[in-house]
């Protein structure tokens, strides 16, 4: 039993590390990579279970893709599995961005077509994920209509609060439309987290959020100030990585931790690395206060994600077995498809597809991924090579 559990942890580390090295394109693309690996290839979750997990993480503030990865690790091997899944997925981009912070002291970011190629990869991966998830989450005309309405609302009103409103509205519609149906498809997995642990986790989340600013006012200790700034950014931002960037800018630039020039250079680098965009905090921490600053900033910005997933998981899984809750989830899962589609359009499609050559390349990668079943990591390598080739032609 013990050896089997350790082997499971090692497997989680290997798989998540590979995803951390190859998952380019931002949080929406990450959900596509995760689905490809964990649902289609390894079958650690069923399609409806993965959709439920994504729906939960859409409800929570913080880095949605990282929270999904943590959740999958917890489902597979408890809280240690969640920690290892997080470390594997996050460590590569942390290291790269720490090195970038050092490298920007001598030279700028050199673009040789790699970034453009990776953006096109992201477009292909996200399109594949939307189609696969849509077949399960929006299979009938009512849920397809909810997905389409969510997409339309969010491209017209792309504010973060509107995304939350769309999810809440879809939940109410789901209860109204599907309340008479059998709950069916109950989650077939269990989580190794007690309610006591969940309560402690939620208490820590809200306690740190309330008391860190007070402690910060009592001291001028730089590390406390940094931890407070990055913890608040991770705790209060809905909508994923790109949304946290302006909040971080307001926290670190006026305070003199980094210059505007260093901040913008790091933002460019963050677009080109795999893994979660929240690791931009590692870059900022390194630029502000070296290795200790990088470790503090990274721990602080991701800690809320851990506390929220651990704190909500047991209650979410119990709630998901009730008929009305399952009805609400049907609406929410359909809305998530619309949210992913809106994110696919902007910023992924609008920034990646700038010519007919880009479009042709994206369609080619999509066909290889969707129909020829080429692994996602090979699609990444093809994207990098294709981007460099187009750049030099």
TrEMBL record:
Predominant location: membrane
Origin: domain of life: Bacteria
Membrane topology: Multi-pass membrane protein
Keywords linked to the UniProt accession: Cell membrane, Membrane, Transmembrane, Transmembrane helix
UniProt KW Transmembrane keyword: yes
GO molecular function, one term: chromate transmembrane transporter activity
TM segment ranges: 12-33, 82-105, 117-134, 146-178, 198-218, 230-248, 294-315, 327-345, 351-372
UniProt-annotated location(s): Cell membrane
GO CC annotations, alphabetized: plasma membrane
Family per similarity comment: Belongs to the chromate ion transporter (CHR) (TC 2.A.51) family.
Protein's name according to its UniProt entry: Chromate transporter
Organism: Alkalicoccus daliensis
């Amino acid at each position: 039993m013990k050896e089997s559990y350790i082997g499971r942890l090692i497997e989680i580390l290997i798989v998540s590390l590979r995803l951390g090295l190859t998952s380019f394109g931002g949080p929406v693309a990450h959900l596509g990579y995760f689905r490809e690996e964990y649902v289609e290839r390894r079958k650690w979750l069923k399609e409806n279970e993965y959709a439920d997990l994504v729906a939960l993480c859409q409800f929570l503030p913080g880095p949605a893709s990282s929270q999904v990865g943590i959740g999958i690790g917890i489902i597979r091997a408890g809280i240690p599995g969640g920690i290892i899944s997080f470390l594997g997925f996050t460590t590569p981009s942390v290291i790269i961005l720490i090195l970038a912070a050092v490298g920007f002291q001598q030279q700028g970011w050199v673009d040789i077509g790699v970034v453009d190629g990776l953006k096109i990869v992201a477009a292909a991966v996200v399109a594949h994920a939307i189609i696969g998830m849509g077949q399960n989450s929006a299979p009938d005309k009512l849920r397809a209509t909810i997905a389409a309405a969510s997409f339309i609302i969010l491209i017209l009103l792309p504010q973060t609060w509107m995304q939350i409103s769309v999810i809440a509205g879809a939940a109410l519609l789901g209860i109204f439309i599907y309340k008479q149906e059998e709950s069916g498809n109950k989650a077939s997995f269990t989580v190794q987290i007690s309610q006591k642990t969940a309560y402690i986790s939620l208490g820590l989340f809200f306690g740190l959020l309330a008391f860190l600013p007070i402690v910060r006012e009592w001291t001028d200790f730089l590390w406390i100030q940094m931890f407070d700034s990055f913890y608040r950014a991770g705790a209060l931002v809905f909508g994923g990585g790109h949304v946290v960037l302006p909040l971080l800018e307001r926290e670190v630039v006026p305070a003199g931790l980094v210059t505007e020039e260093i901040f913008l250079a790091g933002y460019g680098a963050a677009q080109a690395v795999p893994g979660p965009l929240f690791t931009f905090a590692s870059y900022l921490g390194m630029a502000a206060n070296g290795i200790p600053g990088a470790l503090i900033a990274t721990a602080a910005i991701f800690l809320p994600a851990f506390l929220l997933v651990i704190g909500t998981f047991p209650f979410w899984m119990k709630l998901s077995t009730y008929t009305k809750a399952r009805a609400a989830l049907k609406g929410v899962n359909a809305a998530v498809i619309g949210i992913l589609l809106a994110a696919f359009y902007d910023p992924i499609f609008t920034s990646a597809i700038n010519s007919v050559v880009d479009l042709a390349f994206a369609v080619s990668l999509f066909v290889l991924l969707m129909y020829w079943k080429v692994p996602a990591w090979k699609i990444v390598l093809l994207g990098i090579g294709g981007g460099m080739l187009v750049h030099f032609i």
